[in-house]
Amino acid sequence: MEFERKIFSKPAFDKWNRNSGIGSVVLIFAVIYKTETEQSAMELSVCTGWHLPSTQRGIEFKCKDDGLSEFNPFAPVAFGLSFHTDKKPEDMISYLECDRCMIIKGTCYSTMYLTEASDRLLNILITQNVEDLWKELETALINKLDQD
Any idea where the domains of the chain sit in the sequence? Predict the structure, then answer.
């Protein structure tokens, strides 16, 4: 099997004035497998903790005010491991439909696994290297495709 490897990013934001909060840069690591008839992907999303300079100071004060002085709001956090496919699953209960998926261009059906796996993969990225992360994502995708 041959995989396409892609890294996407979403910029940090400050939308307090619109009641949408603030957010840090998000990095998305995705491995994509394509055949003649369908596409599938496995993705790890990481909240980097890299905030806009205008919000960073406010976050530091907020943590102190809330008694969270030991909490590091600037540490990276894995959101989860997500599976994407352009093939509509028979059981849609655990899937979300997205008509503008940035990983699989066009309509996609995705599900997220909020497991220790995402923390383990983040740890691999931090303590080892991105090549090991790619291999783990490829294995996760192969396992998921074998299940279906």
Answer: 4-147
